[in-house]
User: Which sequence fits this backbone?
């Protein structure tokens, strides 16, 4: 009896943790068609979902059915994904004004966006990419156009000075409850400040935004997770943080929507940052770039690309067709009748009689 009760508690905990974590679509162009569905979205499929929205090819089946076929000739100019790490079952406190909301399943800790980035750089000329890896926080900015973001705050001390002097971009929010001498408070405010600075930099550099090349942004925010660990999920400071975050996400989504002239998708992933799929299979993109320094260096051939089959068939059949064409032409020229009035053996009537 006790074992059954324990299993019921464990099952209810897993179900509640799945249900409380969500994937929100805040802004979407009218030619990209999301739809309400009972299907849950695995975290491992988020990168594939983003690739489909760009019209990029997939190398594995997408099981989530919340995105329908859109306009073949129009694709979004940007995808803006914000991952809120550590929010877990506190996502009920987030009352986001979203156009669509989907329940997620934690079959892996964070979405792997490396496959999206590799496809964009392969099929698109000079895309604007700002991505934060799973191991880094927002201050480990790795941007393809580094000169564009050179004015961003490079340290929490600089952000602290801006906040204390009242010159930060967060002055329109009620941040008096936060103490910048506490690292958890400062990290939460610094992440929001840096995103604001990045949006401002994009508004100042319209040439990169209006170049008709798709852009990709992925922000992984850790400040909220640290606030929960420091003050507790039900503390008054956390309620203030949720209120600020709610207004902030609404403002950012509207700014991005205006910046890209209603041609951008803005998404928010509220996730615990823990893998709840104890017995499930974690699906990993075969094209994801990994850097395993502990791997054994062997005398092995390089990995075969997923496009090898297509490239091989193009090369082999083109070679066969060219070889056949050259053979037929050579045979025809070798056996041509010199007496024929052709371009190769054109002769006058006097020359023919003389011969």
Assistant:
């Amino acid at each position: 009896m006790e074992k059954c009760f324990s299993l019921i508690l464990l099952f209810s905990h897993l179900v509640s943790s799945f249900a409380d974590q969500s994937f929100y679509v805040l802004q979407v162009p009218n030619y990209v068609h999301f739809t309400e569905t009972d299907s849950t979205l695995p975290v491992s499929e988020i990168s594939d979902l983003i690739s489909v929205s760009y019209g990029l090819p997939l190398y594995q089946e997408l099981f989530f059915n919340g995105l329908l076929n859109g306009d073949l000739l129009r694709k979004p100019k940007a995808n803006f994904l914000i991952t809120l790490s550590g929010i877990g079952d506190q996502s009920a406190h987030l009352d986001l004004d979203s156009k669509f909301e989907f329940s997620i399943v934690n079959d892996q800790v964070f979405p792997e966006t490396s496959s999206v980035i590799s496809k964009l750089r392969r099929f698109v000329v000079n895309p604007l990419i700002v991505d934060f890896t799973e191991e880094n926080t927002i201050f480990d900015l790795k941007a393809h156009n580094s000169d564009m973001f050179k004015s961003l705050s490079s340290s929490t001390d600089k952000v602290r000075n801006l906040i204390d002097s009242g010159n930060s971009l967060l002055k329109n929010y009620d941040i008096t409850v936060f103490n910048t001498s506490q690292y958890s408070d400062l990290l939460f405010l610094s992440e929001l400040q840096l995103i604001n600075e990045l949006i401002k930099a994009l508004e100042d550099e319209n040439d990169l935004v209006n170049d008709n090349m798709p852009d990709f942004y992925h922000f992984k925010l850790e400040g909220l997770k640290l606030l929960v660990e420091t003050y507790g999920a039900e503390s008054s400071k956390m309620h203030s943080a949720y209120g600020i975050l709610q207004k902030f996400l609404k403002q950012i989504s509207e700014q991005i929507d205006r910046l890209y002239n209603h041609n951008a998708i803005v998404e928010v992933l509220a996730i615990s940052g823990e893998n709840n799929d104890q017995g499930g299979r974690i699906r990993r993109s075969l094209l994801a770039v990994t850097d395993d320094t502990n791997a054994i260096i062997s005398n092995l051939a390089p990995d075969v690309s997923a496009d090898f089959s297509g490239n091989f068939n193009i090369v082999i059949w083109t070679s066969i067709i060219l070889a056949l064409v050259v053979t037929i032409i050579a045979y025809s020229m070798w056996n041509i009748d010199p007496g024929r009035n052709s371009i190769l053996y054109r002769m006058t009537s006097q020359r023919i009689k003389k011969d």
